[in-house]
Amino acid sequence: MSAPLQMTAGDGPAARDSGEPAGNVTVRKLLRALWRDKLMLFPLLFLVALSVAAVGAELLAPHDPFDQNLRSRNAPPMASHASETSSFPYLLGADPLGRDLFSRLIYGARVSLAVGLASVLASGTLGILLGLMSGYHRGWLDDVVMRGVDVLMGIPGLLLALFILFLVGTGFWNLVIVFALTRWMIYARVTRGLTLSFREQPFVEGAQTIGCSDSRIIFRHILPNLASPILVLATLEIAIVILAEAGLSFLGMGIQPPAPTWGRMVAEGRDYITSAWWLITFPGLAILLTALSLNLTAAWLRMVSDPVQRWRWFMGRSESRHEGDGETALAYSEPRSSRTNMENSEPAQGRAANGDHLLEVIDLRVNFRTPDGLLNAVNGISYTLNRGQTLAILGESGSGKTVSAEAVMGILDSPPAFVTGGAALFDGIDLLQISPSRRRRLCGERIAMIFQDPLTALNPAYTVGSQIAGMFQEHRGTSKREATAKAVELMDRVRIPSARERVHDYPHQFSGGMRQRVMIAAAIALDPDLLIADEPTTALDVTVQAQIMELLAELQLETGMGLILITHDLGVVADVADNVAVMYAGKIVETGPIKDIYSSPAHPYTKGLLESAPRVDRKMDSLQQISGAPPNLRFIPSGCPFHPRCTYVIDHCSVEPPPLYEVRHDRSASCHRFEDVMHVN
Amino acid sequence: MSIDSSCRRADNRRTEKERGGGETGTHSGPVGEAAEPLLRVKDLVKYYPTERKGFLGARRGEIKAVDGVSFDLHRGETLGLVGETGCGKSTIARTLMRLEEPTSGAAYFKGRDLFTLSKASVQALRREIQMVFQDPFASLNPRMEVGRIIAEPWVVHPGIVPKEEQRGRVNALLERVGLPATDANRYPHEFSGGQRQRIGIARALALQPDLIICDEPVSALDASVQAQVINLLVELQTELGLSYIFIAHDLAVVRQISDRVAVMHLGRIVEVGGEDEIYARPTHPYTQALLSAAPAPDPVGRKERKRIVLEGELPSPVNPPSGCTFRTRCWKAESICSQDRPQLIDRFDHGHPSACHFAELQILPAAGMA
Ligand SMILES: Nc1ncnc2c1ncn2[C@@H]1O[C@H](COP(=O)(O)OP(=O)(O)OP(=O)(O)O)[C@@H](O)[C@H]1O
Ligand code: SF4
Ligand code: SF4
Ligand SMILES: [Mg+2]
């Protein structure tokens, strides 16, 4: 019972899933992302330069920003300086009082950044605290805060700021307070929303169950998870505050003279717009570039910290990069050698239809091109399905079951998925080669598929009746009335109670089991020859699962349809399958008739799965177990992919990938030691 | 599994338990009394309002998530709770953990009613009852290192493990659940589902609880990893004398780990008894239907296997059927079933009560040993 506890120690980084928690920004990750997106260097460098200028204004400014020099009134850029003490010219010109514009801009940066940072700090602290409290405690506090947010959001911020400043007077701190009071609700709203959703997360409940106080939960568990969205928000807010400050200064309500601010410089420059263009141009440019850089940075931060955004962005790129290059075209190698001999060992001749063979998949390969590298999801699988038969594809999550079925159906999302080789012969037609329009006609008419989650596969906007009827209208040109009548018939056939009344109901009005029936009704509407069912009962309760499986078996008996059943459930497979193909790390590791495989498995993985499954009809003293975890498809182990977890492993296994050995005329297994595995039984 | 061997197992655990019993001597009840259950739940009810505020501030309706549930749990014992989705299993767990306030009822843990405890006593209670969650991906804070996750209970409850010893204890716990001590410095996203579940178990063990409530701890795990976690839980139980409430919808998993099993349907327990009683001699039609629907990984003889396929409408917890909640799908239902709510009573002197007017013993064949 205690033997196999150490095993997880062995499954190193390869076994670890490298998915990252949403919004996890670390410095290293940022640097790496920056390396990828080199264009971001410009806005970031601009912001760094601006900060340096603001901090070191005394050292960097070539002249005193207050030093008036009437001889140099409105001196143009590069004019030499009026006083003999300095040789440095007026780099960007001089203003109407003869003050150096460049130096004033540098000091202005200090004002802008100081106001921006201090205001964001103040409004952020206020807003985040209120947001956390109201989101976490809800109740009256939430009502009050949200009411405040609503009211404030309804009033134009600048108007409110002007009004307050008019009452309390201007000045740096007054400005900061005004911004805190008029911008906090931005943070409060976002923080509250996120807090509400995090509050329901099991890890927060976990913290509650170990006895964490509310404040500990809020500040240690929830707040750190809000860091990245808030960081993005704050960056944007700095830009907004800087713009607003410029606006207020322009109106004379900002920081008072003689302190140089960009906004007032623009205001003052307005009068000279024709005679001294530089007076308005350079401060205006400074404001523009700062706001632009901050916005770009915020957008970039959001992208880096949000995997979904990053993904979207990558897909856009990879599409343009890969389009039309030879890689996506199907490559045909000599696939027969590794072919699975499910029924008989005589190889099918060329592309010709072979008597009973309904579907023949040969050496199918699919990979995913992701932002984190190449991922080999299906690595050369072959199987054959005969008419009227049921083939179960058994495998754990990530073993490639769904991807291989979607490749056959031609519904892979590409990019990121690409079929890189193989063939799928349906009645002699290669599904991977035919035109999309031909495939569309074939799929639905002769091949149908049902999915694990019927709610995502059914369109919530249409009645179930019209979705079933659509099959007839689209493929057979049946009239709407007739199609609806047929839909009712089908709903009866899949035993949806009171079909006639429910045909006009929407998917959400049905329970999970009934929805699955609706999807089956649509799938079998045109009497397909082949039905691919991807985990059709995983989301359902056992009693409902039994009904669905029963239904499928009946249909098969009626119409002689071939069924590919994709599942991870050993029990379901045992119940309905004729043949089974066991998948592991994108390969079929064992295949053959169900009874033989269950009674004497030839692959250690199959054997392990069968022995480790708890049973309803018997309680074992202790469960056998397979050590370790399924591999990460990015790092599939060398040689036999199962070797790090295998109890039969020999030196050879980590080097030499086992071929699919023929165990018997109708069985094969990809294990160097299949004979030993079978004989210990 | 024969009856006597299961008794032996339970006995083992009880003696193990005496060893660690001294530390938790805060309870008021008599200490050594074998009959006193660790936890006694009485008439637990939890209704959720379906609409927070109606037009006139009135409640619109209620979801009867848990509707009068009673059971006992003894020291060192595992009680399995099975039932289909939405039948109220998780709600029981959440009210017992005081994550949710019950509508009514009582739950005596070592003699004290959990539901009337003050906030401070709830805090102390956390040390004795812990929970393992279903979703290994969402139940660990993504921003905390594993070492800090496991040590956090000691920060929250100071005085249990002094700061300088925490590091060593974290390492010991990690090794106990089958992870290398060096994993303390990693973040949750670097681990697979099974490994995360081990981390969750290590955290639950940190406070040395007497009772761990496991809500679907293996249902999110890959088939080849489930057995590892089940075995780990069983080992820890024998070693530490833990009691478990083990919640799952998978009948096979529940059988494997439980000493006693309670079958739930729509907020109520319809049948409860020893694992062997429920699985080999079910008396309630719902239990019988569940068992017949659960496929065994055994293709031999599948043609002969008889299967009870339920027809009829699934009942809703918002508007449960009168009388017996199973009657809309029950093939034995008669008019009395819609009038009288069947009581959960022992109808065959097997020590395993069932709530059906027409309860009937069904003897199921045990599978031959492989
Ligand atoms: N916070 C809530 N508010 C309203 N209804 C709820 C809430 N939590 C649970 N319910 C309802 O209470 C009933 C019981 O839910 P519970 O989560 O206890 O079921 P379960 O047996 O754990 O199901 P599963 O197997 O799906 O986990 C369900 O109808 C559910 O929709
Ligand atoms: S080839 Fe080697 S490692 Fe792979 S399953 Fe067979 S014995 Fe195990
Ligand atoms: S009480 Fe009636 S309806 Fe309920 S389970 Fe028994 S026979 Fe069926
Ligand atoms: Mg639950």
UniProtKB/TrEMBL annotation, chain A:
The record's subcellular location field reads: Cell membrane; Membrane
Tell me the ranges covered by the ABC transmembrane type-1 domain, including all copies: 109-298
Domain (ABC transporter) spans 359-610
Q: What is its main location?
A: membrane
What keywords sit in the KW lines? Answer: ATP-binding, Cell membrane, Membrane, Nucleotide-binding, Transmembrane, Transmembrane helix, Transport
* Polar residues composition-biased segments: 338-347
Name listed for the protein in its UniProt record:
Dipeptide/oligopeptide/nickel ABC transporter permease/ATP-binding protein
From TrEMBL, chain B:
Gene3D superfamilies given in the database record: P-loop containing nucleotide triphosphate hydrolases
**What's the superkingdom here?**
Bacteria
- Identify the PROSITE patterns for this entry: ABC_TRANSPORTER_1, ABC_TRANSPORTER_2
Region of interest: Disordered: 1-33
Q: Which Pfam families match?
A: ABC_tran (PF00005), oligo_HPY (PF08352)
- Asked if the keyword Transit peptide belongs to this entry, the reply reads no
Q: Where is the composition biased (Basic and acidic residues)?
A: 1-21
Query: What keywords sit in the KW lines?
Result: ATP-binding, Nucleotide-binding, Transport
Using the record's annotation, list all stretches that form the ABC transporter domain: 39-291
> What InterPro entries does the entry give?
AAA+_ATPase, ABC_transp_ATP-bind, ABC_transporter-like_ATP-bd, ABC_transporter-like_CS, Oligopep_ABC_C, P-loop_NTPase
**MF terms in GO:** ATP binding; ATP hydrolysis activity
GO process annotations (BP): peptide transport; transmembrane transport
Coiled-coil portions: none
Q: Does the keyword Nucleotide-binding apply?
A: yes
What family is this?
Belongs to the ABC transporter superfamily.
PANTHER family named among the record's database cross-references:
D,D-DIPEPTIDE TRANSPORT ATP-BINDING PROTEIN DDPF-RELATED (PTHR43776:SF7), TRANSPORT ATP-BINDING PROTEIN (PTHR43776)
The protein, known as: Dipeptide ABC transporter ATP-binding protein
Q: Where does this protein come from, organism-wise? A: Caldilineaceae bacterium SB0661_bin_32
